[in-house]
């Protein structure tokens, strides 16, 4: 474990205060079961500068309530039962091997949210940098225990959860290896229900846990606001085209938007600084020109700009 208790490892990268925001393009099931779509989404995330892409891994027979298996629905692949559809959008080991190789070739990490313990065992066949607990799984103690047992960084998403449920999940997972994400689990989420100040609330309640943001809103501004409020991790759903078939596509970010999002996150984190008030050398020229009364601390400020301690 790291010496700073609020830092978390994602392979060779570190997330937490003082480190670049860890940005994840959530592919989820927006690949629609098509490996070529997954590769294109990995390309888009790598080109945008994301640190990782993420998938969702389910064992359909475990995750689909039995009474829904045989319900028929229309899909782009014809009419099929719900359980067949769940299999149709799930990748198996061979596909994940290809995803693993492809991601490596693009120098981007991948991981997933396992929705059941078999999916944890499945993902453990790969050297993933982390696992994620989807908000819907926050109350699944069996899953949380299996994830804790992997010893990897675990991202805990907190949408649709009460403070009591969140505290319980942290107890089950332990706080040493987790990163917690604020989230509102509505697709798309409305600005009025994002409640971004919860990022600060969670930070105050869990001082040893880095806090991130998993967004389902449309648009990018509110995700950038989350970074300004201190989110150390950001995840947004990504899609090749918001009009594609699938429940998550409409609330996802397209490649161009993703590029803007990562660019603006990097600008915001650079602009947040260290919070120590100082006079920059670049301000000395304007100061000379514009300040009529030098003021009693002018010399000290100038010294500070030259890297010397402020004496006031
Ligand atoms: C649904 C997921 O996460 P979140 O709750 O953050 O949207 C997920 O990661 O599968």
Quick description:
It holds the Pfam family NeuB. The protein is of the alpha/beta class and 312 residues long.
Describe the protein's architecture and organization.
- With 312 residues, the protein is an alpha/beta fold.
- It folds into two domains: 265 residues, Aldolase class I (TIM Barrel), CATH 3.20.20; 34 residues, no CATH class.
- It is 38% helix and 18% strand.
- An eight-stranded parallel sheet has the order 7-4-3-12-11-10-9-8.
- Helix 1 runs parallel beside helix 10 and helix 9 runs parallel beside helix 10.
- The protein is elongated, with a radius of gyration of 22 Å.
- The relative contact order is 0.13.
- One of its GO terms (molecular function) is N-acylneuraminate-9-phosphate synthase activity.
- It comes from Streptomyces liliifuscus.
- This is N-acetylneuraminate synthase family protein.
């Amino acid at each position: 474990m790291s010496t700073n208790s609020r830092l978390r490892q994602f392979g060779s990268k570190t997330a937490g205060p003082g480190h670049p925001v860890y940005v994840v393009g959530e592919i989820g099931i927006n690949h629609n079961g098509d490996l070529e779509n997954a590769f294109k989404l990995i390309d888009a995330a790598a080109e945008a500068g994301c640190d990782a892409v993420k998938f969702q891994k389910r064992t359909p027979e475990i995750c689909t309530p039995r009474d829904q298996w045989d319900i028929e629905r229309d899909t782009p692949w014809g009419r099929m039962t719900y359980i067949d559809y769940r299999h149709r959008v799930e990748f198996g080991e061979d596909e994940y091997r290809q995803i693993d190789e492809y991601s490596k070739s693009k120098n981007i990490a991948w991981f997933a949210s396992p929705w059941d313990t078999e999916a944890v065992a499945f993902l453990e066949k790969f050297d993933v940098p982390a696992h994620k607990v989807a908000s819907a799984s926050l109350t699944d103690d069996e899953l949380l225990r299996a994830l804790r047992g992997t010893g990897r960084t675990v991202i805990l998403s907190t949408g649709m959860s009460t403070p009591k449920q969140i505290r319980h999940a942290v107890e089950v997972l332990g706080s040493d290896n987790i990163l917690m994400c604020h989230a509102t689990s509505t697709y798309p989420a409305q600005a009025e229900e994002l409640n971004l100040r919860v990022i600060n609330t969670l930070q105050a309640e869990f001082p040893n846990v880095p806090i991130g943001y998993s967004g389902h809103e449309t648009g990018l501004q509110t995700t950038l606001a989350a970074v300004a409020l201190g989110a150390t991790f950001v995840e947004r759903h990504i899609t090749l085209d918001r009009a594609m078939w699938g429940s998550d596509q409409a609330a996802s970010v397209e490649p161009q938007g993703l590029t803007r999002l990562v660019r603006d996150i990097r600008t915001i984190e650079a602009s947040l600084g260290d919070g120590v008030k100082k006079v920059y050398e670049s301000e000395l020229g304007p100061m000379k020109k514009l300040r009529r009364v030098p003021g009693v601390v002018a010399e000290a400020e100038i010294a500070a700009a030259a890297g010397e301690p402020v004496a006031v």
